[in-house]
Design a protein that fits this description.
Blueprint: H1 2-10, E1 16-19, H2 25-34, E2 39-42, H3 46-53, H4 64-71, E3 78-81, E4 92-95, H5 110-119, E5 127-131, H6 139-150, E6 160-164, E7 183-187, H7 190-201, E8 207-210, H8 213-243, H9 248-255, H10 280-288, H11 295-321, E9 330-334, H12 349-359, E10 363-367, H13 393-397, E11 401-404, E12 423-425, E13 436-438
Parallel strand pairs: 1-2, 1-4, 2-3, 4-5, 5-6, 7-8, 9-10, 9-11, 11-12, 12-13
Antiparallel strand pairs: 6-7
Helix pairs in contact: 1-7, 5-6, 8-11, 11-12
Length: 439
């Protein structure tokens, strides 16, 4: 069976299934389809599958021109469906589903389990199953494999090859794409590793084999914990340097001129996105099983989580200096997405700011050209449907304070000090001015 699959991968006749068509799964599916493989996208969201089949994208930085040639016309190589029975058609199934935290900051692997239970009855001998979702070391062996075996007639190690390869997607990064970011791969056994490396090696420039699924899972967590800890460091330094009347962004820029021993990280109003605010706590949770306390991870989490409150405090102080109470003040939040130049608002600290200002009695609007309307979500249902104000309306609305939460490249932040009584800059986006406060 292995030789048959390897041959199908080599001649690109193997059918590749991708489960979860979000910011990770869709770019991966596109890469395999462009590489000449027949591909099948699977998702529980019918709106996504309908859009793809019509040649439309629902992710802003992925244009329709990237979708239409693959999903429509006589030369189409991709299809999309909500019917998980079609997993039987696939020679490889790549799982790219969310792994959030529960309200108690514990791993929520329900999406992984539900996916395994959905595809398991339709599996057949000779398939490769790869988990790409970020998770704690041991998930592939302890969660995915049992769920597959309990709900199907196939067995891993005999009928299926199992691997773990962590996603490293960075939406709208112009320098690194799915194909050019090295791919770490760990297999449940040597044959699984060989097959997974062969598959990814066809469309990804460099693959990096590691000794096990657990090592691959740990690699992803190390990458994100490294970022979380260093962002917490600069966030803490920001509060100290601000009290000293020192611009943290000037200091970082100067320090970054050192050609060795320093790597710049940028402070902000808090962490956002599906990775950095969440993934480190997967290891914290798992470490307890081994009687280990992850003090660095937890301290970094405390510092980063406190940043929205610090921004609110700085805003209140600046309004007080202008003899304006925050209650009934009009506040504009600039940037709803969690990072520049994307429409991804998952875990965005802007929502924390929004909630805090409204709790204090302020009247809050937001402006974001990438997020024209707040999408429904479990965490921020109260804001769903709220529209972004128009840029031309900012001056007319006479905002008491404008808070720059995300610095999109297509927004003229230099113009904001002239449009409002106060600008609170959490991103170092504005030049110094009498009414600009860094936070």
């Amino acid at each position: 069976m292995k030789k048959t699959l390897l041959k199908a991968i080599e001649d690109r006749s193997a059918k590749i299934g991708v489960v979860g068509l979000g910011y990770v799964g869709l770019p991966l599916l596109i890469e395999f389809a462009r590489g000449g493989f027949p591909t099948l996208g699977l998702d529980v969201d019918e709106e996504k599958t309908r859009a793809l089949k019509a040649g439309r994208s629902y992710i802003r930085h992925i244009g329709d021109d990237a979708i239409a040639p693959l999903f429509t016309g006589d030369a189409a190589r991709a299809d999309a469906t909500t019917d998980f029975a079609r997993c039987s058609e696939c020679d490889a199934i790549l799982i790219c589903v969310p792994t959030p935290l529960t309200r108690h900051r514990e791993p929520d692997l329900s999406y992984v389990r539900q996916t395994a239970e959905s595809i398991a009855p339709h599996l057949r001998p000779g398939q490769l199953i790869v988990l790409e979702s970020t998770t704690y070391p041991g998930t592939t062996e302890e969660v995915l494999v049992p769920a597959l075996e309990q709900n199907s007639r196939v067995q891993t190690g005999r009928d299926l090859w199992i691997a773990y390869s962590p996603e490293r997607e960075d939406p709208n990064n112009k320098d690194y794409t799915t194909a050019t970011i090295p791919k770490v791969v760990g297999g449940l056994d040597p044959d699984s590793l060989e097959v997974a490396l062969a598959l990814y090696g066809t469309v990804i420039r460099r693959t990096v084999p590691v000794s096990s699924c657990r090592s691959a899972e740990a690699t992803k967590l190390m990458e994100n914990i490294f970022r979380s800890v260093n962002i917490a460091l600069v966030n803490e330094l920001k509060t100290v340097f601000t009290d000293m009347d020192i611009d943290i962004w000037e200091v970082i820029g100067a320090a970054a001129t050192k050609p060795f021993g320093f790597m710049p990280f940028q402070p902000g109003p808090g962490l956002g996105g599906h990775c950095i605010p969440i993934d480190p706590f997967y290891l914290t949770w798992k470490a307890r099983e081994y009687g280990r306390a992850t003090r660095f991870i937890e301290l970094a989490g405390e510092i980063n989580t406190a940043m929205p409150d610090y921004v609110v405090q700085r805003t209140v102080q600046a309004l007080n200096a202008q003899e304006k109470p925050v209650k009934n003040s009009r506040i504009l939040l600039v940037g709803l997405a969690y990072k520049p130049n994307v429409d991804d608002d998952r875990e965005s600290p802007t929502y924390r700011l929004w909630e805090a200002f409204e709790t204090l009695g302020a009247r809050v609007d937001y402006f974001d050209p990438y997020c024209p309307v707040v999408r429904p979500s479990r965490e921020h249902a109260r804001f769903a449907g709220r529209p972004s104000v128009a840029w031309d309306a900012i001056a007319a609305n006479h905002y008491d304070a404008v808070v720059i939460a995300t610095a999109h490249g297509n927004v003229d932040h230099n113009a904001l000090p002239a449009l409002a009584g106060l600008v609170v800059d959490t991103r170092g986006a504005c030049p110094p001015a009498d009414n600009v406060v860094k936070a």
